[in-house]
Amino acid sequence: MSDSPHDSADFGFRSVPRAEKASMVREVFESVAPRYDVMNDLMSLGIHRVWKRIFVNAIGCSARETLLDLAGGTGDIAFLAKERGAGRVILTDVNPAMLEVARKRALDRGLAAGLDFMVVDAEHIPLPDRSVEKVSIAFGLRNCTDKDAVLREARRVLRPGGRFHCLEFSKLEIAALVPLYDAWSFKALPAIGEKVAKDRDSYEYLAESIRMFPDQETLAGMMRHAGLERVEVRNLSGGIVAIHTGWRL
Question: What's the rounded Cα separation, in Å, for the pair 232 and 118?
Fold first, then answer.
């Protein structure tokens, strides 16, 4: 086997064969899917709901536009978009187990109209060039093996004048809070995962994946390299998460 770094990818703090990462991530989310929403509330103390509302407000949903939601999981972003007047929303995820939870939630909430579900690898989006007005991805880009490919694909499917939106964990900018944040991430979260979801390993991976994700400026540079323009960054909660936006012009 080659020792080239291009043959490997990060899986949390571990380096794994690049070809194996996608299946390993899929296994993590198949494991956490049944308790995913409960765990999100516990892990973020409910703040993830505020972040997501701010994110969807920034997207600016319109009845005349189509929103492609990548790595949409159990549907939080898609549902908020529909509630805020989005016309068509394409909810996608690479994991069928997550989408099945999303389908049930959509039916329970009466939000199925104008909502399409697709199993999609965000690195290979099966949509035509210039086919949607908005693309979103929330807490999903860090789990993708080839993040540059996701950004290129997002730009490809956007119509000119369309916009890409990413909500993701980022670099905390308040130094005094770093020790507390680390203790919460690496001690509390895996313990909560073990107790509530009976799965410590998956939540250790999720905590590690946050630390391995590019910081704000690095991701902004990756977006520009993918051809997105007028890239902007908005930190939330001191940089624990950040919203990145970029246009296809």
Answer: 29
C-alpha–C-alpha distance, residues 60 and 208, integer Å = 32
Q: Residue 100 — φ and ψ, nearest 5°?
A: -65, -40
Q: Which residues of 107-139 are buried (b: 16+ CB within 10 A; e: fewer)?
A: eeeebeeebebeebbbbebebeeeebbbbbbbb
- What are the φ/ψ torsions at residue 208 (nearest 5 degrees)? -65, -35
Q: What's this model's pTM, rounded to 2 decimal places?
A: 0.91
Q: What is the mean pLDDT of each run of 10 residues along the chain (249 residues)?
A: 63 89 85 78 89 97 97 96 96 94 95 96 98 97 96 98 98 95 92 86 89 97 98 97 98
| Three-state helix/strand/coil letters over 159-176 | EEEEEEEEEEECCCCCHH
Helix (H) or strand (E) holding 47: helix 47-59
Short-list 50, 18, 12, 41, CA closest to 167: 50
For residues 232 and 172, what is the distance between their CA atoms, to the nearest angstrom? 17
SS3 of 179-241: the string is: HHHHHHHHHHHHHHHHHHHCCHHHHHHHHHHHHHCCCHHHHHHHHHHCCCEEEEEEEEHHHCE
93 is in an annotated binding site: yes
Closest to 89 (Cα-Cα) out of 78, 80, 101: 78
CA torsion 46→171→89→157, rounded to 10°?
Answer: -170
Residue type, 49: R
- The residues pairing with 169 across neighbouring beta strands, listed in sequence order, are 241
- Residue 199: the pLDDT is 85
**Residue 121 marked in a binding site:** yes
